[in-house]
Amino acid sequence: MEILRVDGRDNAIFERYFRLREEVRQAEQEFPAGFSREDAQVMFATEHSDVRVEGLGLVDGDSWLGMAWLDWWLEENTDVLDVEIVVAPQYRRQGVASKLLDVIVDKARADGRTRLSTNVIAGAADGTSSGTAFAEARGFVRTHEELHQVLRLPLSDEAIGKLDRPVTGYELVQWREHTPDEWLAEFADAHRAMSNDVPQGERGLEEMRWTPERIREAEARRIAQGRFCHTTVAVDGDGRLAAYTQLGGSTANRERLYQYDTFVRPEHRGHRLGMAVKIPNLRSLQADLTEPAIVHTWNAPENGPMIRVNEHLGFTPSDRRVALQRTL
């Protein structure tokens, strides 16, 4: 057996690496979610200012036993290495995940990282799975959980109309792939506030330092990945961006869509702005739908208001995403 380093530049190796991940995820989850191959390969093969992405494969001849996805954060949380480990079903309980983890620990320590972080899919009812059992047996502790909800599209105009209640005192503004120049600074500040406001449990993560330049880099990366995005914001009477929401997906997997951030500044809460931006954004997305699709979203259980908004829209629970950390 040997460990292969995967950087996305060798198409044949990346195909085998990513196929293993996708096959396992599809086999074990009712609603597969995540990057398409095209999305992922851009992340691996391109340099980014905020993250370096690396893959590892454990192979035996022509057989791929397992793989790992590593996110090395470069702007914030530079003491953390994010890790995902996947093992082919026929090679489980043979030490594959442990071999990959040992290599990852050595690499993290050599880079000066002091924490490993991972997210594992678990049952919606009890929050446990073989993944959580493996992680906890090897020194990881739970730091956070998020409820995964899904929504089947398209929704009828009647169903959307029943939820559409205009709010006074705010103007709604929409855009697609590029944030208008006049909103760039406000949008970057809203992203920063969002990263600081979202429940994070005991993960101990730093506030993300969003700037207009970082917004532009994220947009360019999304376009390079073949992804699309619909954005709706609410602007108050003073011209401040009070709330925003984003929906999107990949042209390679149009049946998988994602509710990205939805954020309402604390001083503007209580005015139904969450629903006020979500409804027109959903209409914008549905106008481009050519086939049925499923929208995925994740929220911390303590974020009750946003979960209830999603429930009103028709989202139903699928599973939980459990965050765990290990101190090195």
From TrEMBL:
List, for all copies, the residue spans of the domain called N-acetyltransferase: 1-166
Under the heading Gene3D superfamilies, the entry gives: 3.40.630.30
Q: Does the keyword Acyltransferase apply?
A: yes
Instruction: State the InterPro entries in the record.
Output: Acyl_CoA_acyltransferase, Bact_Acetyltransf, GNAT_dom
Identify a single GO molecular function assigned to this protein.
acyltransferase activity, transferring groups other than amino-acyl groups
The superkingdom listed in its UniProt entry is Bacteria
Q: Does the keyword Transcription apply?
A: no
What keyword terms does UniProt attach to this protein? Acyltransferase, Transferase
Please state what the protein is called: Acetyltransferase (GNAT) family protein
Q: Name the species this protein comes from.
A: Kribbella amoyensis
